[in-house]
Structure formats: C-alpha cells, structure tokens
Amino acid sequence: MSTQSAPPSEFVKALEDRLLEAAGDLSLLKEQLTQSQRLATIGTIAAVIAHEFNNILTPIISYSQYALQSAESEKPDAELIKKALSKSFAGATKAGRICTSMLGLARGESQTSTCLVQTIVDETLLVMARDPQKDGIALRVQVPPDLRVDADPVQLEQVLLNLLINARQAMTGKSGGSLTIKATAEDTEARICVSDTGSGIAEKNLPRIFDPFFTTKGTARRGEPRGTGLGLAICREIIEHHGGRIEVQSEVGRGTTFTVVLPRV
Ligand SMILES: Nc1ncnc2c1ncn2[C@@H]1O[C@H](COP(=O)(O)OP(=O)(O)OP(=O)(O)O)[C@@H](O)[C@H]1O
Ligand SMILES: [Mg+2]
Questions:
Q1: Shortest CA distance to 164 belongs to which of 190, 198, 208, 188?
Q2: pLDDT tens-digit profile of 172-226?
Q3: Three-state DSSP class for 90?
C-alpha cells in the first residue's frame, strides 16, 4: 500500500503565485472589457446620430442650394428663397431635436406625450428629401384623424422617415410604384403600415434586416443608394422602447409592408 506524500511546499507556493497572477490578469481584462463596452456604446450612439442627421441633412442641403441658386440668378425669386430657407430652418431645428432625443434614448429616456398619428405622418412627409410624386411614385395616406398614441414624436417621426426612405429606395430603378401609409385603430393597438411596390426582400435576408449594419445596399454604382444598415435597427430600438413592435411582410418583385404596432391611448 502506497501513501501519497504532500506536494513540496515550493510547488504549492509557485502554484499560488500563478493563481494570483491569473486573478490580476482577469481583473485587468474585466476592466478593459467594461471600458471597450462603454466605447462601443459611444460608437453606436455616434453612428446612430450620424445616420439620422444624414436623413435630415440631405433635404437641408438641397433646399439651401435652391435658395442660393435663385439668389445668385438674374431674377431672384423671393418667394422661392423664403420657402427654401424656411424648409432648411425647420430641418435644422429638427436635427437639433433628434440629437437630444437620440442621446436621451441612449440613456433609456424618451419625452413621451399623446400625439396624433396624423400629425406625425404629415411632419415626416414634410422633411422628406423629394416629393415622392416627382419620382413617379403615387403616395396614398390613410390615417384616422383622431388616432392617438403615447410616443416621443421626434423618435416616431424618425421611424417613419427611415421606413419611407427604404420604401422609396426599394422602388428606384422601377418605373414608379406606389407608397401607402395606412394607420388603423384595433382594440388596444394602433397599427401604422408603410407599404411599397418595390423590389421586396429575399426570404433568406428577412431574419437579418433588423440587425445593426445589415445592408444589401453596398453598391458602388452611381445613382444607386448605399446603406449603412442602421435604419431598421434604429426603428426597432425606438419602437420596442415604446412598448410596441415592428413587423414585416414582403414578396420579392411585388413589394414590402412594414407595420409599426403601438399601444393606443
Ligand atoms: N422597403 C424595403 N424594400 C426592400 N428591401 C428593404 C426595405 N426596407 C429594408 N430593406 C432591406 O433591409 C436592409 C436593411 O435596411 P436598413 O434600413 O436597416 O439599412 P439600409 O437601408 O440598407 O441602410 P441605411 O438605412 O442605414 O441607410 C436593406 O439593405 C434592404 O435590403
Ligand atoms: Mg434604410
């Protein structure tokens, strides 16, 4: 019968030292992880604000260009200049509000109030870069005039603007199409649908479209939209923060409908 002798004390000592060292490394790594998670959050907020600013800056730039061109022409059109300037002013004011609102969202805060869906839709259409009709897109809006939701109006407009931009981009290259915004009141829910007759979404992509940075618009061809893949991720974040959900139905070649479902007031 053999007896097991205790390990030599220097061996135990070396093991303890290694253990201590490893524990030190671990806490350093944990600290680094927290730091990089913080940086990732800042990175995401920056990307989100840049993305939303881009949506708003595009029309501001084109309106200011109209105003400048007219002011520098032989016959400046005071009415046109005034209209273009007031549109740019409204856009720039909105950009400021978006900044505040996105920083709030990052802290988990929203400025909710009871809003008329009709007003949200009208405000969003006002800041769209181009009138859809100018691109041969028939726009239909059907919203019950008394439909109300509890929401942060700035954030809800951002959701609609992203959905409208996607819808319009899905129809570029097609000769025209139709874009429908339809809201309905169910028992406890308000449903806002944005439908287009664009390219549709391939079934294999459907589970990924809400992922941050998922985009199929990586094209470098001129005249075709490029994407960062943040639009729908922002929409989902905002809607879920409002206690709602966003759904999609799509058929390749026929079109797509996004439905935003929010609790009704
Ligand atoms: N209405 C739509 N019709 C067809 N495909 C769509 C539609 N909306 C979204 N998609 C698909 O979902 C992807 C992700 O959309 P998302 O808005 O998140 O990003 P993006 O439009 O590509 O880029 P970004 O919005 O950041 O400019 C798109 O690249 C596209 O493939
Ligand atoms: Mg988009």
A1: 198
A2: 877 789 999 999 999 899 999 999 999 999 999 999 999 988 999 976 666 666 7
A3: helix
Report the nearest atom of ligand 1 relative to the CA of 214.
14
Looking from the CA of residue 196, the nearest atom of ligand 1 is 1
Q: What is the pLDDT of residues 38-49, one digit of tens each?
A: 666 677 778 888
Q: Which helix (H) or strand (E) holds 259?
A: strand 255-263
pTM attached to this predicted model = 0.81
Residues in the chain: 265
Q: Which among 1, 55, 261, 72 is positioned nearest to 168, based on CA atoms?
A: 55
Picking from 248, 171, 166, 147, the residue whose alpha carbon sits closest to that of residue 203 is 248
3-state secondary structure of 252: coil
- Answer whether 156 contacts ligand 1 (Cβ < 6 A): no
Ligand 1 near 231 CB (within 6 A): yes
155 C-alpha to center of ligand 1: Å? 18
Residue nearest atom 1 of ligand 1, based on CA coordinates: 167
| Whether the Cβ atoms of residue 209 and residue 166 lie closer than 8 Å to each other | no
